[in-house]
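Training component of the fellowship. As part of building independent skills, the fellow (R.M.) carried out the full modelling exercise for a liganded target. The chosen ligand was 2-acetamido-2-deoxy-beta-D-glucopyranose. The inputs are recorded below so that the supervisory panel can assess the work.
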Amino acid sequence: MEGIFIGVLCLSGCLTFSTCLLHQYHFVSDAMTWTEAQSYCRETYTDLATIENTEEMKKLKDTVSAAGHSSEVWIGLYSHIDWKWSDGFNQSGAEYRNWESPDPNNFAANEFCVAMKYYGRWFDYFCHSKIPFVCYRGTLEDSDFVLVNTAKNWTEAQRHCREHYTDLVTVRNDTDREKIHKLIPSLLLVWIGLYRDPQIYWSDGSNYSFSSWYRGYNPLGSMKVVCGVADLDEGGNWRLFSCEERKPFVCYSVPTVKTLVKVRVELQDSSVDLNDPAVKEQILKEFQERLKEKGLSGVTLKWREKADGKVFHKEEKGSDKKKKTEL
Ligand SMILES: *[C@@H]1O[C@H](CO)[C@@H](O)[C@H](O)[C@H]1NC(C)=O
Ligand SMILES: *[C@@H]1O[C@H](CO)[C@@H](O)[C@H](O)[C@H]1NC(C)=O
Ligand SMILES: *[C@@H]1O[C@H](CO)[C@@H](O)[C@H](O)[C@H]1NC(C)=O
Ligand SMILES: *[C@@H]1O[C@H](CO)[C@@H](O)[C@H](O)[C@H]1NC(C)=O
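Fellow's submitted model of the complex:
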């Protein structure tokens, strides 16, 4: 092949839920429950707002402020609260709790492990904190509780208990709890086996990796699911509430931008066939890389095939006008 060839490239942006520079936010002032707001957003736009970076945080705050609103708005965040025992215990007594009110209060949406104070009450706590812990020896039916007075984070404590005893301690009732708290020296806080996985999600299924939580409490009570707001009073930072509360909300939409671009290639090497799938793929890859360098990561590129199944056609003199109208 030799000469000048014309091909048509189809650019489409933000057709997926991937990072998209064109997330557009829409403030809705009607107060609804989180689930109602989600339905409304899915019907009217794309979904409840997803926020994936600081630029989007700013964009969302600007959208809400411009609408004259200055407090909490639902966004697409939600979380399952599912406490589990380290040893997997799930029978009668697995639901026993002895929280110190107002815990569990999930400070900064980052307290996933449970500690017992020397007087027997429980607190949800940062799993990375290093404190002593209580393991049990033998089986749960006939168990022996052991205080390990060495400061470790929850995961290290779990490993230690599993290596040297049976597991971190499971607390099934007041009898268990009293036996354990008698082991704890005054003023000490110790890990017990209760924990939960973060389980924080976006309504549209986007990856939860960026976060901007309010550095304060998110009381959980006995709720099984909690939903997220951006609180404009707290710099737009996120907090968790009962999903049943009624609040205004923010939806997002993804404009599906489609553009056709004519690509003109001058070939001097007669051994190259532009319509070879590998060659076409290679050219696409290079364009994609260049778009990425310019920060356009949500754009998909595809070649447009003509009726004969080929993309590149030799440019004929005088045919230019016809091609342009076709585009
Ligand atoms: C309790 O745990 C066992 C073993 O992991 C599992 O087979 C069973 O389904 C669980 N029961 C409940 C009620 O979750
Ligand atoms: C606990 O400490 C270990 C070792 O320093 C670390 O790898 C792990 O991530 C820590 N776990 C938590 C929950 O912070
Ligand atoms: C607590 O649970 C243990 C083990 O199931 C049982 O032996 C004990 O009687 C229970 N105590 C109370 C007060 O229910
Ligand atoms: C989400 O993130 C994980 C780990 O970073 C990655 O393996 C996975 O492919 C991502 N999922 C999506 C849908 O982007």
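The panel noted the following from the submitted structure. The chain has a mean pLDDT of 89. DSSP finds six helices and 18 strands in the chain.
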